[in-house]
Amino acid sequence: MHPLARLEAAFEGRGAIVAGVLSGTSADGIDVALCRMHARAGRLARPELLSFETLDFAPPIAARLRAILDGAPCGLRECALLGRDLGRAFGQAARELAAREHLALELVGSHGQTLYHHDGLECSGPASLQLGEGDHVAEQAGCAVVSDFRQRDLAAGGEGAPISALADDLVFEHLPRPLAILNLGGMGNLTLLSEGAEPLSFDTGPAGSLLDGFARALLGREFDPEGRHAAQGSADERLVRAWLEHPFFSKPPPRSTGRETFGAAWVQACLRAGGRPADLLASAAEFVAATIAESLERYAPERPRELLVAGGGVHHRWLLERIQARAGCPVVASGERGVDPDAREGLVFAVLAARAVLGIPSTATAATGAKSGRVLGKISLPSVA
């Protein structure tokens, strides 16, 4: 039996064991969400999360990634080697968690590590680069792999992001609409789900890239735990408004951004404002909250019942308080509604991988601008030996 036919039988029968694997914009580890997925008559059911863990990168890979993401040059040799090494690391991480849970892994959806994402100003059109070769993931994981999800979206006229929005309709299928889902990773992005309509989604701007960049510069730490230092400061609203004058924030959806616009150089420019560390951290949190609240006000077709928050930023309690103060609707961690906030993106890539092997389209024009009806991802088949 062909490997994909075997997979389809697993989805239609006992349920396939699928891992969603990624390293986000912050590159602070490898997220692995292990789930069971069923399909009936070609339609996927909501994934059942079995286990989630963030595994550390090996120190040499972590150092290479951090240097490149902070602006160090990356030549062709290093790009090729890093793509290989990240693929191996993603595959090993998926295999390790599955083995620990005594589960036979059947499929991996591997997003990879974003090294470049267009800033919306590229005159030749959008482009994006995620490293972590799918064939290396497959060799290490010992199963089929779907990777490189963004490219078909880009080829079909989309932004290639926020890609997670394309599976939110299934991950959050059990919740009433209208609903807003906010992911707080290196960048923030919103998904707006309405009854009977395509998901509307777009990036709101920097989140962890700014907050963690300030923490590294001002505190000598990778992040501000729970936003405790920010909570001790006073935000400078004039500074917040000045940062909001960046042209990205006047661009309507579909829109996406990345470290090319809001990376280390932009963070350093923001730091030149000077002031007490706590006040700068408070201003950064207030700014992120303002980008989200203003995005909801301008672009949400109807007021959402709730704003569900997922991603690493959900642990920044002060930021959540500031979002609540500005958003005009209840702000709730997605875990309170049955979706682990740390596992949400892993679940997304498990869903996208399952759709790919089952031939189910994922693109949504309102989410990324891409033409509808496209299946995302490239498939690396398992060994038949």
Report on this model:
The structure is a single chain. This protein is of the alpha/beta class and 385 residues long. It folds into two domains: 3-159 and 376-380, ATPase, nucleotide binding domain (Nucleotidyltransferase, domain 5); 175-337, 2-Layer Sandwich (Nucleotidyltransferase, domain 5), CATH 3.30.420. It contains 15 helices and 14 strands. It has helices at 3-12, 59-69, 76-100, 134-141, 150-155, 165-171, 208-219, 228-231, 237-243, 259-262, 264-271, 277-299, 317-327, 344-358, 365-368, and strands spanning 16-23, 30-37, 39-40, 43-44, 48-55, 107-117, 128-131, 144-147, 179-184, 187-193, 200-206, 307-310, 331-333, 378-380. Strands 1, 2, 5, 6, 7, 8 and 14 form a seven-stranded mixed beta sheet that branches. A five-stranded mixed beta sheet has the order 11-10-9-12-13, with helices on both faces. Helix 3 packs parallel to helix 4. The chain is globular, with a radius of gyration of 20 Å.
pLDDT under 50 segments (min length 5)? none
Specify the helix fraction band: 40-55%
Q: Could you give the count of β-strands?
A: 14
What order do the SSEs take from the amino end to the carboxyl end, as H and E? HEEEEEHHEEHEHHEEEHHHHHHEHEHHE
What's the main sheet like? 7 strands, mixed
Q: Judging by the overall fold, what is the CATH architecture of the largest domain?
A: 2-Layer Sandwich
Structural class: alpha/beta
Tell the overall outline: globular
Mean pLDDT: 95
Distance between the termini: 13 Å
Question: Cα-atom Rg, whole angstroms?
Answer: 20 Å
Total helices: the number is 15
**Oligomer, anyone?**
single chain
> Beta-sheet strand percentage?
15-25%
Could you name the CATH homologous superfamily of the largest domain? Answer: ATPase, nucleotide binding domain
CATH top level assignment of the largest domain: Alpha Beta
